[in-house]
C-alpha cells in the first residue's frame, strides 16, 4: 500500500474543504448579506466551528500530509526523522479528525435549534429552540414565516450549516483514514529499510 501517495491525496483534498468551511462560517455572520449587531447573530456561530474546527485544525494536518507524501511511496518513513514525521502526521490527523467532528456537532445543533431572528416585535429570539424533533421547523416549512428579519435567515442558516455539516463529516473521515495510513506507514518504513539492506 502506498501510504505516501495516500497522504498526499488526502492532504490535497482537505485544503479546499477547509477553505470552504472557513468561508461558510464567515457567511453565517452576515445573514442574507446583512451586517448585524453581535447580539443579533445566532450564538452557535461564535463557536467558530468552521473557522477553527473544520478550517485551521484541518489545514495543519493537510500541510503535514503533503510533506509526508514525499517523492515516493514509503521512503520517507525510514530512519528516526521519518518515523518522527509519521508520528507528527498521525497526531495532527487526530487533531483534524477532532476539528471535523467538532464542526459536525455544532452544525447539527445549529440545524436543530434554528436561527436567532426578529419575529416582528423588534426583539430577537430563538423561536424554534423548544421544538421537539417531530415538530422541528426543518420538516415544517410553513413555520418559517415567523422570522421577519433578517430576510431569508432560516434558509441562509440551513444551507450554510448543512454545508458545514457535510464538510465536517468528509474531513473527519479523511483524517481518520490518514491516521490508519500513518500507522501503516511505520510498517511500510521498516519494510523499505529491510529491502534496501537486502539489495546491498
Summarize the structure.
The chain is 64% helix and 2% strand.
Structure description:
- There is one protein chain.
- With 200 residues, the chain is mostly helical.
- It has one domain (3-199).
- It has 4 helices and 2 strands; from the N terminus they run αααββα.
- It has helices at residues 3-27, 49-69, 79-113, 153-199, and strands spanning 117-118, 124-125.
- The protein has a two-stranded antiparallel sheet with strand order 1-2.
- A hairpin with a 5-residue loop joins β1 (117-118) and β2 (124-125).
- α3 packs antiparallel against α4 (153-199).
- The longest helix has 47 residues, at 153-199.
- The two termini are 24 Å apart.
- Mean pLDDT is 85; it is low at 71-80 and 190-200.
Give Rg in angstroms. 22 Å
Structural category: mainly alpha
Separation, N- and C-terminal Cα atoms: 24 Å
For the report, how would you describe the main beta sheet? 2 strands, antiparallel
Please provide the count of β strands: 2
Q: Walk across the major sheet and give the strand order.
A: 1-2
Question: What's the structural domain tally?
Answer: 1
Helix fraction, binned, reads: 55-70%
Mean pLDDT, as a whole number?
85
Tell me, briefly, the overall form. elongated
Counting H and I runs of at least 4 residues, what is the number of helices?
4
H-E string: HHHEEH
Low-confidence region ranges: 71-80, 190-200
**Share in β-strands:** under 5%
